[in-house]
Amino acid sequence: MTDSELRAYMKDTPALGRRALFDEYCNYVYAIVMNKLRSCGTREDIEECVSDAFADIYRALDKGSSMDQDLKSYIGVIAKRRAIDAYRRLAPASGRAVSIDDDESFREYAADTDVQKNAEVADRNSILIDKVKQLGEPDSTIIIQQYYYNRTASEIAKAISMTAAAVQKRSVRARSKLRELLLEAGVSL
Amino acid sequence: MRRKNDIFDDIDDETVEKLSQEFPVLTDEEKDRIFAMSERKYNIVSEIVIENDEDVKGVEQYRRPVWHRFAGIAAAIAIIAGRAGSGAVLMNSLKKSAPIDTATSENETVETTDSTTEDVSKFMAPAKDLTERYADFETSVVNHALTYDKNDTLTFIIERTDGVINVEESIWYRVVDQRYPDMASLRTQFEALYEPVDAPEGLFGGEFTSEELPAGSVISHEMAAVTYMTYDGKLYLNSMGDLGTFDYWINSDIDIRKVSDNEFYASRKCMTTTISGENSDKCDEQVLVFHILRNTRSGGWYIDYVTKNGEAEYNNPDEVPTAMSNSADVSAEELINNHLTFYNYWQNGQSSADDVDIQYNPDDYISFNIQRDSDFTVWYRKMSDYNGLDDFIDSIHQIYTDKGFDEIYSININDLYNFDLSSHQVGDFITEDEYTTVIEYNGAVYLKTDPAKTSPVFKYLQGINNDQPGENGSSRVIDAYLRFFSNGGYDWARSTNVSFNFTLDSDGKFKIDHVSELYSDEQTKKIYLAETFYGFKNGERLYNGIFYTDESVETIPSDDESRPYAVCTEYENVAELRNYLETYMTTEFIEERFEGMFEGDYPVFKDIDGKLYGKRIAIDVLSYWSESLKCSDPEKDMEVTDVTSSEVLVDFHEYAYDHSDEDETSFNTRMYAEIPSDSRKQIYKITKIENPDARG
Fold first, then answer.
1. Cβ of A19 and B62 within 8 Å?
2. C-beta atoms of A68 and B360 within 8 A
3. Number of domains in chain A
4. Same domain (yes/no): A146, A85
5. B11 contacts in A (CB within 8 Å)?
6. Can you tell me the distance from the alpha carbon of B457 to that of B581, in angstroms, rounded to the nearest whole number?
7. CB distance B25–A151 less than 8 Å?
């Protein structure tokens, strides 16, 4: 569904529209939130945060803001903002109360402006994803689900119709292979 | 919880996007769970916007409200969508239920009720005639039971609903019933029964040709729900859609209740095609109540509306209803809501057209120019739910008397017809005379935007306090409590009691004739104090770096390496912003509370190249308001105490919504303000704010 179709759908039948928007972007928002909270949040925290982000998104779209923006990037911004808020709350080091006029707390936003560093990170990640894909299925999925999405072996097993033991075995092998592939490409883990 | 050797420790946005696309992880069960959570949160946040207001659920208060047409039209749409049933039943949906005499409905005799001592036998003939013809119309026309040729069919594709994979077809049969050779004959039959009532939408469809709508074309759901249409000059019957529920009259008994020589109710018992429970042999018995009126011009009788299973509007058999009291009973609250919906839409339509909105919704705006001191561009906003001025005026007529409309909107309704600017090109110069509030342009209705109205105030019905009939039975006064809401946030102290006067209009229906808002002195004082407090809250927001900006204007790095300066589109320059704050707060208070807002080496706001810039935090203004402010009730959340003749103290009970724990918090804020020496100005200036138990 295109952005304008989604927007029209949300306008005409808001409840169905929200569901359609959710279905379209839930994996995206989940991935964004996961990226931020993987190290500090439980599965429940992450789901909470994703749902918070969607509530924000619905409200933002309701009031008609950012109508000309690419919906995906707009959603991305909201999700990221939510994730950062949650990170501040959940990460042990940032347990303190954060005030909105506290510049320090907005470093996360500012971090995106470091162009050179961003370019390096993007390059490294591009190689990483290429190499993960090079592992071939189901190993790529196993690695991503296990290490990006923090899924357990049994959850992954269910998703890809294998036994948990088999997933675990493949995971160990895949990770070792990935390390080699990355080293060859000049990226160290 | 943190994993060793986390290979996905530093993933950039683009990669996240790629991962989400190429390795989606959520199961259906997880999706359902998270979606349900998001819905719950969305609804909670929506609900706190307007406390306890069932009528304004959703976040429509934050956006340009979605326009819901009045109940009658909404009902018609619902019918088209759902095909609720027969023509007569459709008519019922357009009106509230008519009185039904429960006593007589259980009584199968034709005797009149005790209360009606007059002879009603003269009504029996028209009642029998109309109910028989009604039955005929229902069982043939409404129940799709005309003779048709199954071999002469038309097939269309119904537009797809997102998420539905199946292709749905709409199949139409050619009608070959000799009684009804064309659409006009159907209409004639309908009008003979219901004249002069309009036919319900969805029964008689439009006229099409194979050129404009070739067989196999995609048609809308609405069209696929219409019962009859004309295609290449021939009458076609839709194979789909619900049928009416009328089956046959159980007996010939008719119960009559006289209202006047020109008006009566007739009740008759029928069998329906609706099947009760699991027993497929047992259909329901129902009493249909017909409200029948005499056409004073032709002298004939017609059905005004039919009620089935209607709830009794009155239970006292001694009380003979009159059209006036009945009509007022069923429509007063609805009319108030219709008025408020229209009023809010109007307020919204008139609100200033900001560049961002115009840019995002270009189809909603047209502009013209006017020669004043210099060329001046005027913007009109489309009222997109109206098909031209006739439709617009018709909608107004459903709510207001001409006088009432004139009084509330300062426009003589008869003047509305005069301004069709379609002969102009958009952007043309128009005359001052043409620069009028409502115009028509290429068949659409537009409302003049008012640059001064930056924050429209919307009103919602909170409750009805008192309802009393007028002296002569043709008027009515209803006192209601309205809640006010402004996009900017606080405007709640203005919520007030309002008195609505209804009067019987020339079409025999009650309309709003006069509206007056009733402010006590105390309430007036609260309005100004609330405005003052809002000035402070606004200042606090700006000081925190949350403001509207133009993202196309580049930010400027600040010297102290903190947040960069972004252009602030809310005020022209520092002087204007300062002036705004000083309207509501003393200079001393501003300097103390908002230290460094304008002063120092690195002020929060400063003028750069003639524009106002501020150290902005990337938080949306409306999100900020939604989280930090909740409408309070001035009656219980605002206590005003005069300390001295020159100082007032106000205790606010504020509410906020905390997203982190999804909880509503409340806290008290005490405001001290100088009482204006000139009481006519009514502007209080804040000298001190105390937050004894503020969050954090």
1. no
2. yes
3. 2
4. no
5. 35, 121, 125, 148
6. 21
7. yes
